[in-house]
Write a structure and sequence with these properties.
Blueprint lengths: L3 E8 L4 H16 L6 H7 L8 H4 L2 E3 L3 E5 L2 E5 L9 E9 L1
Antiparallel strand pairs: 1-2, 1-5, 3-4
Helix pairs in contact: 1-2
Length: 95
């Protein structure tokens, strides 16, 4: 059995950018609008308003670079490459 390592970024639901787009998403869902405005669609990665987007966008892939030297392998995360909303970086292994 092998092991894989993932690195993700977590955004806060309290961040101003998230709150702005979440309000637009909620308004579209409540009004029965079938497509999100372009900026909000880009933020959520979907043109179509749906409740699952509220949680899905909080977890994002972040830029990472493979790192290795003798007997060591892993990832490096360059802080300057992180999206501004990322508050937590999670490293986890799956078996």
């Amino acid at each position: 059995m092998g092991m894989s390592t993932r690195v993700i970024g977590l955004k806060s639901a309290n961040g101003p950018i998230y709150k702005k787009h979440a309000a637009v998403l909620r308004a579209c869902i409540d009004a029965g609008i079938k497509k999100l405005p372009e900026e909000t669609a880009k933020y959520f990665g979907s043109e179509y308003p749906d409740n699952y987007l509220f949680e899905e966008v909080l977890e994002i892939d972040i830029p990472k670079h493979e790192y290795s030297e003798d007997m060591v392998e892993g990832y490096e995360v360059h802080i300057s490459e992180l999206p501004e909303e990322v508050e937590v970086i999670r490293f986890f292994n799956s078996y």
